[in-house]
Design a protein that fits this description.
Blueprint (H helix, E strand, L loop, with lengths): L1 H64 L3 H16 L5 H7 L1 H12 L1
Protein backbone atom coordinates (compact mmCIF):
# COMPACT_ATOMS: atom_id res chain seq x y z
CA UNK A 1 0.00 0.00 0.00
CA UNK A 2 2.87 2.30 0.76
CA UNK A 3 4.41 1.79 -2.69
CA UNK A 4 1.14 2.80 -4.34
CA UNK A 5 0.91 6.02 -2.34
CA UNK A 6 4.53 6.87 -3.12
CA UNK A 7 3.87 6.33 -6.84
CA UNK A 8 0.83 8.64 -6.72
CA UNK A 9 2.80 11.34 -4.90
CA UNK A 10 5.62 11.04 -7.43
CA UNK A 11 3.20 11.34 -10.37
CA UNK A 12 1.18 14.19 -8.83
CA UNK A 13 3.25 16.95 -10.53
CA UNK A 14 2.68 15.27 -13.90
CA UNK A 15 -1.10 15.07 -13.36
CA UNK A 16 -1.13 18.66 -12.15
CA UNK A 17 0.73 19.82 -15.26
CA UNK A 18 -1.75 18.07 -17.55
CA UNK A 19 -4.64 19.53 -15.57
CA UNK A 20 -3.25 23.04 -15.94
CA UNK A 21 -2.79 22.52 -19.70
CA UNK A 22 -6.33 21.25 -20.14
CA UNK A 23 -7.88 24.08 -18.13
CA UNK A 24 -5.73 26.65 -19.95
CA UNK A 25 -6.78 25.31 -23.35
CA UNK A 26 -10.43 25.39 -22.32
CA UNK A 27 -10.17 28.98 -21.06
CA UNK A 28 -8.41 30.10 -24.23
CA UNK A 29 -11.02 28.47 -26.46
CA UNK A 30 -13.80 30.02 -24.41
CA UNK A 31 -12.25 33.49 -24.62
CA UNK A 32 -11.76 33.20 -28.39
CA UNK A 33 -15.40 32.19 -28.81
CA UNK A 34 -16.60 35.19 -26.80
CA UNK A 35 -14.35 37.45 -28.89
CA UNK A 36 -15.71 35.96 -32.12
CA UNK A 37 -19.31 36.49 -30.97
CA UNK A 38 -18.56 40.10 -29.98
CA UNK A 39 -16.92 40.80 -33.36
CA UNK A 40 -19.89 39.27 -35.18
CA UNK A 41 -22.31 41.38 -33.16
CA UNK A 42 -20.36 44.55 -33.95
CA UNK A 43 -20.42 43.75 -37.66
CA UNK A 44 -24.17 43.14 -37.63
CA UNK A 45 -24.80 46.37 -35.71
CA UNK A 46 -22.65 48.26 -38.25
CA UNK A 47 -24.55 46.79 -41.20
CA UNK A 48 -27.93 47.58 -39.68
CA UNK A 49 -26.96 51.08 -38.59
CA UNK A 50 -25.51 51.86 -42.02
CA UNK A 51 -28.74 50.72 -43.70
CA UNK A 52 -30.83 52.73 -41.23
CA UNK A 53 -28.66 55.79 -41.82
CA UNK A 54 -29.11 55.53 -45.61
CA UNK A 55 -32.87 55.15 -45.11
CA UNK A 56 -32.96 58.17 -42.84
CA UNK A 57 -31.02 60.26 -45.35
CA UNK A 58 -33.37 59.19 -48.17
CA UNK A 59 -36.43 60.07 -46.11
CA UNK A 60 -34.94 63.48 -45.35
CA UNK A 61 -34.19 64.05 -49.04
CA UNK A 62 -37.71 63.00 -49.98
CA UNK A 63 -39.17 65.47 -47.52
CA UNK A 64 -36.98 68.28 -48.87
CA UNK A 65 -36.48 67.48 -52.57
CA UNK A 66 -39.14 64.92 -53.41
CA UNK A 67 -37.01 61.92 -54.51
CA UNK A 68 -38.78 58.85 -55.85
CA UNK A 69 -40.36 56.30 -53.53
CA UNK A 70 -38.55 53.57 -55.50
CA UNK A 71 -35.37 54.58 -53.68
CA UNK A 72 -37.14 54.28 -50.34
CA UNK A 73 -38.44 50.81 -51.17
CA UNK A 74 -34.96 49.67 -52.10
CA UNK A 75 -33.57 51.07 -48.85
CA UNK A 76 -36.35 49.44 -46.84
CA UNK A 77 -35.37 46.12 -48.46
CA UNK A 78 -31.76 46.75 -47.45
CA UNK A 79 -32.77 47.44 -43.85
CA UNK A 80 -34.99 44.36 -43.83
CA UNK A 81 -32.20 42.19 -45.23
CA UNK A 82 -29.69 43.51 -42.69
CA UNK A 83 -32.11 42.82 -39.84
CA UNK A 84 -33.34 39.43 -41.05
CA UNK A 85 -29.84 38.05 -41.57
CA UNK A 86 -28.63 39.12 -38.12
CA UNK A 87 -28.33 36.09 -35.87
CA UNK A 88 -26.14 37.54 -33.15
CA UNK A 89 -28.28 40.62 -32.42
CA UNK A 90 -31.65 38.94 -32.97
CA UNK A 91 -32.64 39.09 -29.31
CA UNK A 92 -31.81 42.81 -29.13
CA UNK A 93 -33.93 43.55 -32.21
CA UNK A 94 -36.80 41.51 -30.83
CA UNK A 95 -36.63 43.16 -27.41
CA UNK A 96 -36.43 46.75 -28.70
CA UNK A 97 -38.88 46.28 -31.61
CA UNK A 98 -36.76 48.52 -33.85
CA UNK A 99 -38.11 46.98 -37.03
CA UNK A 100 -41.71 47.41 -35.94
CA UNK A 101 -41.07 51.11 -35.34
CA UNK A 102 -39.50 51.44 -38.79
CA UNK A 103 -42.49 49.78 -40.46
CA UNK A 104 -44.95 52.03 -38.62
CA UNK A 105 -42.94 55.12 -39.53
CA UNK A 106 -42.66 54.14 -43.20
CA UNK A 107 -46.44 53.55 -43.35
CA UNK A 108 -47.02 57.01 -41.92
CA UNK A 109 -44.87 58.52 -44.67
CA UNK A 110 -47.01 56.96 -47.41
Amino acid sequence: MCDWQDAVWNLLPVFTSFGVLIVGAWLTRSAKRREWIADSQKEEYRRLLAALNRLNMAISEEQVQGTSSQDLQELMREVSEAANTSIFIHEFLKKTNVLGDIVVTSQKLK
